[in-house]
Structures are given as C-alpha cells and as structure tokens.
C-alpha cells in the first residue's frame, strides 16, 4: 500500500510532537480557538495538516482539549465518554473506506470531565454520554495537531444556537484555559452547499457568498464587534448560502465566550479556501 499524505505528515511531525513542552503550572493561559475542521479530506491536504500542526506547536502541549463541535447538537449539555480509547464517530459518508478505519486512541479524560462538570452552573446539570466518542469535528483536526494521540480530549455538546447562550457556555469553560486546557470551537467559516462543492472537487473556486461572508466575519473579528457577529443571520452578506444551517458558524461564540476579552485582538492562524469554503481559523487570549 502506498504511503498517504497523512502517513507522511505523522512520520515527519511525530518527533517534534514528542518533544513539544507540556503546559506547566505558572505558564500563561492557553488561547481560546476557533478552527475550521474541514472534512475527512483535510487528512489528504498537506498544507492544511501542516497549518494545524504548526498552530499546535506554537503553544505548549495542553493538559487536555475541550471541543464544541458543529456535529454534536444536543440538549441538555453533555460530554463524550471520558474513558481511554473511546471509539470514534465516523459521521460522514461517501469517502474512501480507509477514512472509516482510522483510529485516534486518546488517553483517559476523567480528570478533564470532572473539571468541566465543576465549571457548570448549579442550575445546569451535565450529562455524560458513555456511548459517544469523538466525532470528525474533533478527531480530524486533533489528529493533525497532536498526531501521537497523547492529549486527553472531550467534546461538550452544543445545546443551542443562540449566540448569547453559547457565549455563556464559553464563559463557563474559560477558567480551564488558565489550568492548561485548550478550548476549541470547531466548525467551518463557510459551509454552504457542501455536497455541490465536494462534487466540484479540490479545485473548486470560492463563490461570492463564501468570499463575502468570510470577509465580513474577518472584519468584525478584527473590530471586536461581537454584537455584529451575533447578527450574522440578518446582517452577513452571503446568507443564507454561506450557512443554510448555522451549526458550523455558531461554535465561534463558544470561542469568544471562553476568551478573557471576547472583544480583544484576534490572531488569524489559517486562511484560504478548500472546496470553495473558507478555512479561516483564529485564536484569542
């Protein structure tokens, strides 16, 4: 069997990942990040794999990762199974069989699960879904970022699409960043007509709705205009084509809420387009 792009990525990145310093008490808080997680084809994209890995290498290796993914909409708020080697969720269709055979055996995340539960308000119980593992909004980018699968990882479900309530969820998770955990909102900056875009293949050029929405979001993020971003349904150009359903954009509000200053400076880490969709990803302190 010939070596895949992912095989080459993991061979080249594993030694650096093994030597990556781990977050220690007294280190600066880790950032709050929003990443465009793409689709399984990300794992065949040498540039995108490199971008995500270098982003991970720009900070200490976290004690654990908390992901709010577009692909788990569930109320009441829940977390995935914290046990080690939790099976993955292959929540996609139409791809080569090899993608359904990939594994990502993360370590036990019980300590992280307990910390998340402690962060929730008394009025909101946290359900542990022992039957659910990491979906592709988590394990695909994490496999690029931490190829050794040596970082505990849990998902928190997205119980609503209300920007205000998701900001509040992010606020509840904010303290975790100060304890060495990475808080991730995982979506896709534009996610319109994905079936058509996939049919066009990797050479698909972004359409105006994708470019216009991405430019709008980038400007408001630079301006720290959280209120403006919250009005994306009515104010953003390219709608509703950029997000016929909103679950790939709304994790952004968890990221903003988890930041120490949601209106503070944004560092853009990934730009460009894949299958015509915006890969824009960023972090805040």
From TrEMBL:
Residues 1-24 are annotated as: Disordered. The keyword Secreted does not apply. GO terms for molecular function: dioxygenase activity. Keywords: Dioxygenase, Metal-binding, Oxidoreductase, Zinc. Its cofactor is Zn(2+). InterPro entries: Extradiol_dOase_DODA (IPR014436), Xdiol_dOase_suB (IPR004183). Residues 50-263 form the Extradiol ring-cleavage dioxygenase class III enzyme subunit B domain. It comes from the Bacteria. Residues 1-11 have a biased composition (Basic and acidic residues). Belongs to the DODA-type extradiol aromatic ring-opening dioxygenase family. This is Class III extradiol ring-cleavage dioxygenase. It comes from Kocuria atrinae. The lineage of its organism: Bacteria, Bacillati, Actinomycetota, Actinomycetes, Micrococcales.
